[in-house]
Amino acid sequence: MTLQIKRFIFFVLFLMGMFVQGNLAQNLQGKASYYHKNLSGRKTYSGERYNSYLFTAAHRKYPMGTWLEVTNTKSGIKSYVRVNDRGPYQRRLLIDVSFSAAKELGIVGAGIAPVHIRPLEDADLRDTLLSFLLQRDSLILREHPYTVYVKKAKKKKKSKRKKKKK
Length: 166
Hints:
This protein is of the alpha/beta class and 166 residues long. It has helices spanning 3-24, 99-105, 128-143, and strands at 28-34, 56-58, 67-72, 78-85, 93-97, 113-119. The chain has a single domain (27-143), classed as RlpA-like domain (Barwin-like endoglucanases), CATH 2.40.40.10.
């Protein structure tokens, strides 16, 4: 490739990177829903298992492991969640939070609530907040390793018909 083509490709990739970072750094407003407890134990996009007691979330664009401050705009209650899944797949929803985060935000009764999302930057996550969030998650995991709620399968009844002899 010529030098001009390489420079053009580098310039385009550089601009795309700046555009994506600029969009992700913005505060977002929309509607949030939550994952139910019955989904515990299923694999998420990141590969870890969903635990309804952990404070996690699903978002379409934020990178895995990003910490978000989710605020219920009606009540003003805040919760801190970590992105570990992709979704929600309904276009009207902005984020899916875990059951524990939904309880903290007051979403469980209504099912959907208006929220304000702010990604936490490195300056926000220094020392105390990050150590608190990691300690909270490790304590929850010790107390509640992912709990799987499985519906019991019905056993098939064996037929008692006798075969007819010819």
